[in-house]
Every structure is written in structure tokens, then in C-alpha cells.
Amino acid sequence: MSRNSQQLSVSLRQLFPTAQIVGADDIRCGACLASVDQAAADCVFAIGLDVESDAARDTVDAINCGAKAILTEQFLPSSVPQCIVPDVREAYAQLCQALAGKPSERMLTIAVVGTHGKTTAALMVASMLKKISNRVAYYTSLGASDGKDAGLVAHSDADANQLAQWLETAADNETPAAVIELTDDMLRSHAASGVEFDVILFTGLRKSQRIDSLQARGIENAMHRIVGQLKQHGIVVFNADDARLNRWIERHQPHSIGYGLDAFADVRGSRLSSLPGEQSLMVSAGNCVTPITSLLLGDHNARHMLGATAVGFAFGLELFEIVQGIERLNKIPGRLQRVPNSTRCPVYIDEADQADRLAVAMHALSKHGNPILCVAEVPEAATPEQMAAYGRVLERSASRVILTQSRQSTRSGQKAMWQVLDGCEYPSEIQIVPNRETAIELAIRSAESGEQILLAGWGANRWTNDQTRDLKNDMECAATMLARMPSKPVEIAVVARSPRLRLFGGAA
Predict the structure, then answer these.
(1) In a domain, 497, yes or no
(2) Residue 19 DSSP class
(3) pLDDT digits (tens, 9 = 90+) for 321-336
(4) Strands 452-456 and 372-377, how do they pair?
(5) Greatest extent of the chain over all pairs of C-alpha atoms, in Å
(6) 82-115: burial string, b at 16+ Cβ within 10 Å, e else
(7) How many CB atoms lie within 10 A of CB 294?
(8) The domain spanning residue 14 has which CATH number?
(9) In what order do the strands lie in the sheet with 337-338?
(10) Residue 84: pLDDT above 90?
(11) pTM, whole model, 2 decimals?
(12) In this structure, is the dihedral angle defined by the CA atoms of residues 191, 108, 126 and 287, taken in order, positive or negative?
């Protein structure tokens, strides 16, 4: 029987001993809601989670919906008791976890935090632990599993109640471990407050194109708060190759294990080989050394492998078991994912919707010197400076570029394309094909032996075709077009970069 069906009753006086309770000696509740669209018996409503909402009006609506009490940061005119706390978001999250029966106390919990690589690192940790325990729950921006069912919908801005319900289900399924990717939205909303962690994995604090100094400081403050949620035996695992993260670790001195490719660390990797389609590392942890081979390319993925290794090392697992678990993960949707049957000219798909992410993907593919034909989507919600930076990376890293635009109207999309071209020294070399399906077909048909094709900007997400309005994605389009192509013998060749202007007027 799940704990929801048992209808737990929680005392707010015991849960928040320093809170001020007005209108009653104590408040006991069996549910906590944040929206008046919901209704439940014996419920408390949290007021003030949305800073732009009218607290007084929300209080009236909540009472009309049957609220027995109010959880708030300020005294409000109310005919029902209210519990006044310093931070309503944190209190709401803690109450959600308490109502779920504190599921993090019944399993190993691993949080993954950082500005880059959270999804990949979380999936690698889950793959590693699944090899050991057979079942692992995970919650990432690419999807979730409760330890029993995979392919569940996950929200990058999940609130505290959604996270608590997922954890409760995973615990009720007797899942031994849960891996949670904490996005920036989840950190800002304190969605994970009340969850106790065995391990917190910090992937990095490198600034991204869309994180300014104020946001970066907010993430650092959230990291400090999350470290306070470690269990008594809990430990921090961090990327020692990230200079800014290293400074943060030195400043706060948590009990920690470092990992890296270049820096001296507890878990360290040395590059062995990098072949087309795979890479190998020699991993050392403690007194053990073992090789690891993965189909996931690039130094960024190599560091994520080391991060997962460090998590296993923190749990005291054998290194050969850890490596076997990591090697099981041979693809991540939309993250440098190779299209099947793309042998003559390998085709990769990557989300790369920002200049820094695009540069990382390009660097991973360019190690063997083979030129890259890039089909790039105009970035969304970017400033003119960020658009220009995207153009600079395209021009410097790719041998040929086809620029597409599927997110905006024709007029605004045309303006965005011009802003991307502003970052290019030779904009006439960039081919503009707004229809993404047509652009992918052009790239595949015009690619020469030895070239690599990178479809950047959408990853595993779906986009619409201007003509049919059907939802499609890069993987489906590329696979369909490759199947139509006549088979050609594989030739080993490297195509030299030759600047030229190509015009394309329609479907090939």
C-alpha cells in the first residue's frame, strides 16, 4: 500500500518548530497544495510561491476552495489558521516531502547540479548504479523512471509536490537508489528542499551563454544550500577540472571527492585513444586502474564518465563493476547521438543551441581532422551578441554551414539569421535554407566521403515542417533520407576546407 493511500497527517508545529502559528495551537494536514485549481480534504494552501500573484486574493480563493489553513511568509487577513515561515518555498517543499513519508530516508539519493552536463552525468550515474542494483529511479530533463516504469514524463521546472510524488513512488517500488537532475528552475524554486542526499555531484560552474553573473551567484548560493541537505555520511563529488568550482570547494570545504582529466584528483582519467565513433580512457581510483571504452564522444563526456565513476567510488563499489555500468550507456538522445546506418558520412545530432555548447560538440567531432558539415538552427531567445557568437563558432569550426530557422515567424526569423551572420567574417559562405527538413536533405546528399554531418540546435526535440506542419525531429528525418540514399563504398578521405558559395533553391 502506498503512503498516499494511508493519508499521512503532519504536524506543522513539529515540522516547523520556529514558525509562528496564528489562530491555532497546531495545524495538522494531510495535503499541501499550491494551486486553487486543485481541491483536497484536510489540505493546507501555500501562499506566495508565485511572487507576482496577489497573496490576499489567493488566500480568499484558497479558503473558498476548502483550505483548512494557510502556509505563508506574511500575516494575511484570513478566517482560517495560518503558519508563518521565513521562506514559503522551502517550507512547502519540506512539507511535501514529509507528507510523502520522507522517501529519501528509504533509498540512496544522488543529486546532480551544475551549469553544464547535468543530464548526461545523471544518466551515466543511473546506468552505473543499474548495473549494480538492477533497478534505479532517475529524474532528468530527457525523461524519468520510478524504478519500475521507464519513459515517464519529467519536467525541467518540476515543483516540490511533483518531485515528492515521484520519490514516493520510487520508494514504494522498493527502488534502492534515485538520481535527480536539479535544474536551475528547480534550484530557484527550492523544489528539492526536504530531500536528504547521500551524494551531490557538481558537474561544473563554467558560465554559459545564458547565465549572467547574477544567475551564477544564485546557483552558487543554491549549491551551498543543497550541501546542507547531505545526510550525515553524505559526500560531494566535483569536477576538479573546473577552476571556478575548485575555488568554490576550497572556500566551503565540504567532504568531497574530485575527478578530472587534467587536474590532480581522487578519480582521474588519462586519454588512451579517440577513434571515429568511440573513445577510451584509463581510469584510476584509489589503488585500482582500469580502461573504459565508450561510444559517447568528447572530453565533456569523458569527464561525465569520471563523475559517475567517482559516485560509485564514494559508495565503495568495485571499479570494474562501475566501469561495466558506465559502458552500458552507449547513447543519449540528442547529445552527440549518431544516426544509425550513417557509415559513409557519419551524422550526429546535438542540442547545441548556444555558442558554448556548439563549440563543445564541434571540438568532440574535430579530433580526427575530418571536416564538419553543420546544419545549425538559429538560437532561440538569444541577444544579438549571443547570435553573433553562435555565428563565429560556426564559421571557425565547420567546413560548411547550412543555417536553418524553424522556431520563429518569417520576419523575426530572417532578422535572427542576419544577427548570426553578423558574427561571420565571410557570411557569403553560409548557406541559408530556412526549411530544416530540406536543409538536412541537402547536407546528406551533398556530403562527401570523409565529411561528418552535425545537426545542431534541436537535439531530440521536435519541430514542424513549414509545408505540412507535421511534427518531426532530426533523427527521423536523417534516418529516412539515409535509407533513400543509394549505398556507396566507404572511402577513406579527408576533404580540405575550400571556401565557396553554394546556392540551393529547393529539394534536392
Answers:
(1) no
(2) S
(3) 999 999 999 999 999 9
(4) parallel
(5) 81
(6) bbbbeebbbbbbbbbbbbbbbbbebbbbbbbbbb
(7) 20
(8) 3.40.1390.10
(9) 337-338, 347-350, 452-456, 372-377, 400-404, 431-432
(10) yes
(11) 0.88
(12) positive
